[in-house]
Design brief:
The chain has ten helices and eleven strands. With about 270 residues, the protein is α/β, with parallel strands linked by helices. It has one domain: 3-Layer(aba) Sandwich (Rossmann fold), CATH 3.40.50.150. Bound molecules: S-adenosylmethionine (SAM) and zinc ion (ZN). S-adenosylmethionine (SAM) binds next to helix 2 and strand 6.
Length: about 270
């Protein structure tokens, strides 16, 4: 399994498998949940008012991905994450992995080296069920990541968390960091209906600046774009996974629409150490 680090504040020891779970040299112990994931949350995470995405959003994304809308995105990303010529098992950390669609789609050849982290229990349970051979961790990716210095070959954040300093700490010297964020035109037709003016936002530029400031260099950028026709249920799921609180009046405007042609778009960024 993926080698994890203790998440007790200031501990930083590696975790060793024991009969009942994982233990560090300072005797901090973590049980394995019966579903098979590791709960590395700390008391402050459990009290958090924002324990990851709400169940409604997680389940809507699960149904959305099951419809195959991200297949083209997987094909686009797979060329980046290949890292040919390495004969050891590559270690991959997926920050905000959600219900676990992208892990097995991109890294099915290396379950031993893959670790997905999410703060939503519903998401991590779905992920564990989907790909039991991988390592799944319930943890807050905005705190110290449960991985040793320079130990990770691929850090991925697909519409997920971006703790920049921690990403840099964990990334091996030759490692890559792959980030995906919604593109300017993502669901623009839907957003136009809901907000009456669909704001076009370019997030990629801001992320590149932040990462460069932290010492990571953007070596390639791509935009993935795809047109799809959504049926009524898919429209509702797209809304549920995107907007926390779409007002009833706005939702009513869409409830009568049976099909809609929409653009799916993502900005993809590839980083390395400077
Ligand atoms: C938009 S979803 C993307 C999920 C997945 N990467 C995908 O593309 O399907 C964002 C995910 O980040 C998780 N998340 C939010 N805050 C988090 C945190 N502080 N630590 C870990 N995961 C978090 C949410 O629970 C959610 O599953
Ligand atoms: Zn410890």
């Amino acid at each position: 399994m993926f080698e994890l680090r203790c998440t007790v504040r200031n501990c930083q020891n590696l975790l060793n498998p024991t009969e009942t779970g994982l233990t560090c040299n300072a005797r901090h112990h973590f049980d394995r949940a019966k579903q098979g994931y590791w709960n590395l949350t700390q008391p402050q995470d459990r009290k958090s008012k924002k324990p990851g995405d709400c169940d409604e959003a997680v389940l809507a994304r699960h149904r959305w991905l099951e419809r195959g809308h991200a297949a083209g995105l997987v094909a686009e990303l797979s060329t980046w994450v290949k890292m040919d010529g390495r004969d050891t098992t590559l270690r991959t950390l997926d920050l905000g992995c959600g219900e676990g669609y992208f892990g097995p789609a991109l890294f099915s050849d290396a379950p031993d080296g893959y670790c997905g982290i999410d703060l939503s229990k519903t998401a991590i349970k779905l992920a564990t069920r989907r790909w039991p051979a991988a390592t799944w961790v319930l943890a807050n990716a905005d705190r110290e990541l449960p991985a040793a210095e320079a130990s990770v070959d691929r850090v991925v954040s697909l519409f997920g968390r971006r703790p920049i300093t921690e990403i840099k700490r964990c990334l091996s010297p030759e490692g890559i960091c792959v980030i995906a964020v919604p593109g300017e035109e993502d669901l623009i037709e839907l957003r136009e209906q809901v907000q009456q003016a669909g704001h076009r936002r370019r997030r990629g530029d801001v992320i590149v600046e932040e990462m460069e400031d932290a010492g990571l260099r953007c070596v390639e950028q791509r935009t993935w774009k795809h047109q799809v026709t959504l049926d009524h249920d898919a429209i509702q799921d797209a809304l549920a996974m995107t907007y926390r609180a779409v007002r009833h009046s706005q939702q009513a405007r869409l409830s009568s629409i049976d099909t809609m042609n929409v653009t799916l778009a993502a900005d993809l960024l590839l980083f390395r150490h400077k």
